[in-house]
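Possible race condition, two jobs.
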Amino acid sequence: MLEVSTIISYQRDRFVDTEELCLPFFDDVSGTIRGYRIFTACRTFSGRIFRLEDHLDRLYNSAKSIHMKPPMGREQLKIVLQELVDRNLQPSFNGELLIDVVFSGGLAGNSMQQSGTGAYLYMAV
């Protein structure tokens, strides 16, 4: 019998079971309604994210180009990503994961500009 292990993702500022991951409608109006989001999909091999720096360059350059304040600094995101990988290392995955990293607009006023403290971070495994 195949044992199914819990897969962990990341929602805004905490790790959650992937089954519980959600994008809140009202707390993330600019992301949900206005499509103010950027993302990248990362692959791991042997427990390491392939071309991590390229993914981070793409995220942070895209955020800058649309005047989005990232949810955290680049180095902090690298730490959170590595913890996410570590939490999901399971023999059945052979160190291989697909991680969707999303910066989502967050709170919005009556304009197309972001308000509040910055984008929200979601990472789905």
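Job #2 (started ~2 s after job #1):
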Amino acid sequence: MKWIKACKKGIAFFLTVLYIVLTSPFQFGSAFANAEKGGTLILLGNEDLPPIVYNDNGTAKGVVVDIAQAIGEKIGYNIKVLTVNWEKAQQMVLKGEADGLLHINHSPEREVIYDFSNSLLKSEFSIFVHKDNRSIKYIDDLRGRIVGVEAGGYPCLLLQNYEDIILEKIINWKAAFKALHSG
């Protein structure tokens, strides 16, 4: 029951923040410059981040997709969400091929190139290891090891600062978990 209350509070907070972000021309000036009232905003999401955002047979789905589209209806904008490779999505926004990104984590490097709204969702990251490996608990335990990361993802950005952690870009999460399982 406590979990349900916490979820409801989190969703209410998320909706409030997302509404403020989408209705604030100061925070999303470039996005609003490309779409007149009643126009279309193109937002990109990670194609492989269920249940937040993902590609389901060519259709963008997920909690942030539903919320972004609902808010778009309330404020008079058509919201078109596309799901693409996360690294490509970030490049598309930088090139002006889309108006914004759904669910991107802050970092000092990213703050130089993107404008951020207030946080919409709390992101937590985990280190997944083979079931027989009990020695890895912290980032420092990854030194000298190969670590699978999503290209353009926050863990990739964070871990690239550790010279002795070997990063291997994963194709998708399903393939990464299969590789981890097989050793």
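Helices lie at 2-23, 29-33, 63-75, 86-94, 108-113, 154-159, 173-182.
Logs attached separately.
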